[in-house]
Amino acid sequence: MTREEAAQLVYETPEKAIELILQLVASAEHLTARGEELERKVAMLTTDSSNSSKPPSSDGPQTKLRPRPAKKSKKRNPGGQPGHKGTNRSLIPVEEVKEVIPLFPAACKRCGAALIPGPDEPTGKYWRHQVFDIPEIKPEVIEYHRRCLRCSCGAENWGKLPPEAQSGVGPRLTAFLAHLTGFHRVTRRGCKEIAKTIFRIDVSLGSVCNLHQEVSKSLAQACEMARQALPKQPVLNGDETGWKYRGLTTWLWVLVTPTIAYYHVAKSRGAKVLKEMLGDDYTGILCSDMYSAYKAFHKGVRQFCWAHIIRGIRGIKHSCRSPDAVRFSKWMLSETGRMFALWHAFKKGHLDRPTLVRKSVPIRSRMSKCLQLYRTSSDPYVAKAAKSLLKHWDGLFTFLDHEGVEPTNNSSERAVRPAVQWLNICFGNQSEEGEILTARLLTAERSCILQGRNPYQFIVDSVIAYRNGLPGPSLIQASC
After folding, report:
1. pLDDT, tens digit, for every residue of 310-329?
2. Is the dihedral of CA 114, 120, 122, 125 positive or negative?
3. Helix, strand, coil percentages, rounded to 5, for the chain
4. Spatial CA neighbour of 316 closest among 129, 43, 12, 6
5. Which helix (H) or strand (E) holds 5?
6. Average pLDDT, the chain
7. Lowest mean pLDDT: which of 1-10, 204-213, 240-249, 403-412?
8. Inter-axis angle of helices 171-182 and 205-218, to 10 degrees?
9. What angle do CA 67, 380, 51 make, to 5 degrees?
């Protein structure tokens, strides 16, 4: 339509002009809304672990690297900088080394004269240098001869094998193969190959699976005691992630304390799984994300994960193009940064807890004002986020008043990460026994790490105790 045709339409048929304008306005509004929705969907396709609940392991190589702060000097080279102390291996005492080899110079570096060490030279000045290596690995084989003795009655009696020799594989190798799987995520075939190439021991794939099941049984008591100790803990961090059972989706749950990481594989993601692990009357503080199962299970004091909240706010800024989304996310992220600055100052000992609480009051007040303002936003995603945070307000700042409570759920997320990495290799379990083994190995390994214990030695001790019918080592420390 030309300008003249438009003028003619307006002056000669104003009613048609009005109808046309209304149609164009409606079309423009529809196209604008459609465009915003398409932009949001495109933005959702480019989300990563920094602006959504996706795990870091889902970030592929195509994910844009996060911006790094500018370097102070362009002349700075990669690696250790001048003055950096560095990390060196400590020398072990001389009496513990296998061999001491003295090295003397053959000639003087100044005049070239031949040098011959005198009788006092070995006790003079010297510089220590140690080389660490492993000995040639040879399997240690113990052979048992079951002798036969004939009784006066004519019966033949054979000597019995000791309990630790029944399987034909010693407890250290048994524990090592399980440790490879539970900690280093080595497949069963990988364990078989390592046993053959490194230890020169030919173990069949079926034997590896049988040994893993024996380890699972040896850890049963320790894991059950750990589960029974969970309801008594004042603070628990919980999380769950998808798992696989014969290609079907199941769920791997984890509950973490400062000294225990308890894992459980279940077919459900509902609150009933938490009841199985904790019972019906947990009275401590539960820290988690805002997933509804935790709320359905626990009506007491909560602490919601601020890492999830921050990623959600960043996701709004990333996926929504409205002015409210930009202003809301900018305001909330700014106040969150101030809150965490106070928290880090408290953790470093620069603030005491009363000062922390007092200085957080104006920050919380501004956060509340922001949420109240944007709860009626025209942007539905902004309004939904503001209403959700107001609904869960009582569980956002528990960490300010209670000792041992963190503002994030990082402890349980760190506990979930090795399980996710394991899943990406093994693709889940093929039997219920495999699910139980997965949970028990992860529980024993991660709990030992939290306690500063050697997880491999813990499994060795557990296998020895199991084969001899004795109580195994415990994952419960005195502080629990």
Report:
1. 999 988 877 766 889 899 99
2. negative
3. 50, 10, 40
4. 43
5. helix 3-12
6. 87
7. 1-10
8. 90
9. 20
